[in-house]
Amino acid sequence: MRRAVVALAHPAHAGMLRALGLLENAAAAHGWTLDYVLAAPDPLVAAVGLPAERVAYLSGLRGWRGWPARLRLPLVALGLARRARGADLFYSATLSSFPPCLLAGRLRRIPQVVHVYSSYADGASYRKHLLGHARSLIAPSADSLALARRALGDFRPGTRARVVYNGMDVARLAREAAAPAAPGLVPNGVPTIGMVGNLDERKNPALLVEALAAVRAVLPDVRALLVGAFPDAAYAARVDRRIAALGLRDAVTVSGFLPNPFPVVHALDVLVHPARRDPFPLALLEGMALGRPIVAAAVGGIPEMLVDGESGVLVPPDDAAALAGALVELLRDPARRARLGAAAYQRLVTRFTLEGFTDGVFAAFDEAVTAYG
Q: Rounded to an integer, what distance in angstroms lies between the CA atom of residue 331 and that of residue 333?
């Protein structure tokens, strides 16, 4: 049985923790055991099935990118290396945790695999995270891999890079969606659109607010749910001021963090993803697994997930008018919503399977160990 040390710098990222839970459940069948080093505790750690006895915390994994915190990076790597005695591999679950994994791997003389869940617009961000030194990469979409390759001016010779699409445990999602929803968040017959995830500028909830105003000019009963929390207080305040200026106080609800958002997602008339960039949004996979009709910005890996007009509706990014128009059309056509939701579900269970995800990640682990040895 081989052993990997998994590092995650963003423990509050619910989608990433759920992905680690899927890997944990499949690890033994692939000949691996996983130990976890997270930047901080999070309520979802236990909920997704990460065993407490194999979870450790190292606060320096988060926040190393700013000065003078960057000077502590060698100490963080040393702490990570101490937790990897006898391990065969480091797995950086996101690009942010790769620099300490890279240094710790060199100290331990074991390979590192980095999962590039990133869609930076400039090469400097990839270089800052030392991605040019990676020898084994996993990307969640072809777009994400191509973006990283272009940003670095190609990878070094001998670098092993593969696309592994995320998958979903559809049965588990269905069980969680059947649980009671948080009070006040179920639409109860009111037409409701919503988005799910970290409510930051990249996910672009402000665009959904703008589109909602245009939608309500035609369909005045429509309301919006922003399922998640704002990590940036200043951005949250800007969005809140815009909600007030547009007269949408009674039409927009921000749920805050929900340990189980799926009963709410399942009740949405339309799931919206207005992101400015996103390599492969897990929130959309979850919506597909629940058969939700989806309207999303055509950015990042989203066009690989959904076929426009068949399994979802894709609109140009940062275009409130296009988003509003697509939403009005769908809200007026329940039969089309049902067709799109059913097609999204079928695309998920045939193209983005749980087995495909876990097989691909553990194959990358095996390949990295074999090549290193």
A: 6
**pTM score over 0.70:** yes
- In this structure, the strands spanning 55-57 and 223-227 are unpaired
CA distance 43 to 84: 24
A 10 A CB-CB count for 303 gives: 17
Q: Which domains does the chain have, with CATH numbers?
A: 2-167+353-372 (3.40.50.2000), 170-351 (3.40.50.2000)
State how far Cα 117 lies from the chain centre.
Answer: 7
pLDDT tens per residue, range 281-325: 999 999 999 999 999 999 999 999 999 999 999 999 999 999 999
150: exposed, middle or buried (C-beta count within 10 Å: 0-12, 13-18, 19+)?
Answer: exposed
| Whole-number Cα distances in Å, 195 to 6, 225, 366 | 29, 7, 37
**Nearest of 349, 203, 177 to residue 268 by alpha carbon:** 177
